[in-house]
Design brief:
Blueprint lengths: L10 E7 L8 H12 L9 H27 L6 H19 L5 E6 L6 H10 L4 E6 L6 H16 L6 E4 L7 H18 L4 E7 L3 H5 L4 H16 L6 E6 L12 H7 L7 E5 L8 H17 L4 E4 L7 H15 L3
Parallel strand pairs: 1-2, 1-3, 3-4, 5-6, 5-7, 7-8
Helix pairs in contact: 1-2, 2-10, 3-11, 4-5, 6-8, 6-11, 9-10
Bound molecules: ligand L6N33NVT and fe (ii) ion (2 copies).
Length: 332
Amino acid sequence: MTKLALSLSEYAVVLVNLGTPAAPEVPEIQAYLKQFLSDKRVVDYPDILWQPLLRGIILPFRSRKVAKAYQSIWWPEGSPLRVITERQVKALGKRLELTETPVQVCYAMTYGQPSIGSTLERLCASGVKRIVILPLYPQYSATTTAAIADQVADFVKQTRNLPEIRFHKHYHHHPTYRAALAGSVRSHWQKYGQAEALLLSFHGIPERFVRLGDPYQQHCRETAANLAADLGWPTEKVIVSFQSRVGKEQWLTPYTDQLLEELPGKGIKNLQVLSPAFAADCLETLEELAVENKEIFMHAGGESYQYVSALNDSPCHIRLFEQIVLQQLQGW
Ligand SMILES: C=CC1=C(C)c2cc3[nH]c(cc4nc(cc5[nH]c(cc1n2)c(C)c5CCC(=O)O)C(CCC(=O)O)=C4C)c(C)c3C=C
Ligand SMILES: [Fe+2]
Ligand SMILES: [Fe+2]
């Protein structure tokens, strides 16, 4: 048990994920994409060029296109990303209760609701004095983790009586994350056997961002190398690719969809695919990776393509969050 100086109601941990539309319908998707794609951490083109393009062309067309994809993955309880995040909050709360660590657990979303600012305001109004922010991104990128930090900074700027805040930057190297990832592959192998290769398809970012100093690509490579070592697999059987490119700019390569077209021709016809950048299954995994990309691979001559789920609310994933929180609470 961690001994803390303040009482139960004065500590909080906020899990933060990207956010998702409120409903799988065009107006809700437009509102979500407008906020998301107007964030300079995500798209850094000058507003004078970008906003007319975004509002006039991208939002109307893309919202209609992705509405069908969202409808195909939506669960009765809501968007998978939100439902899984809520399950993670519940499971982490239970684990922390077991350790009698006095900290309340909640979540916020970078885009959409509950927003980071409103969540921090609510916590402070209820008497919370010390807050751990845990972005649910194992690999740091300015497009995701720093976008959260920006919103925490916005809250700080407009708040008179500040809480103490600790921010967990990334965890791809954490032994329990490594164990959780390797464990999820091993349990998949126990059920279905091994494939010829593992494809780690990370969400992409513009290549330019890496040249400007974003360490995301390096973190992705380290994740893959660690996974190969932890599984005792040769590194060449753990292939890295990048998915979900938006726009015309060069993003990190190889692109997942292009690579999947080529692999059967190179003799890899049985593939297991996972996406370690996602702490929760979402549109990008359940639709793009598990359905759309499978069709590409099978059409190109692939024989078997299995998607290995994100770590979601699995016990080892929640244990990881618990350990991060306990580490962050040290000295408080
Ligand atoms: C346009 C630039 C984008 C960058 C850069 C980007 C980085 C990035 N995103 C995630 C995680 C998620 N992205 C999701 C959806 C999504 N991403 C973009 C664009 C960029 N992402 C768009 C436009 C969308 C919406 C869907 C679409 O229009 O194709 C999601 C899923 C949300 C859901 O509702 O399920 C996640 C999660 C990471 C990790 C990342 C960089 C490391
Ligand atoms: Fe994205
Ligand atoms: Fe996508």
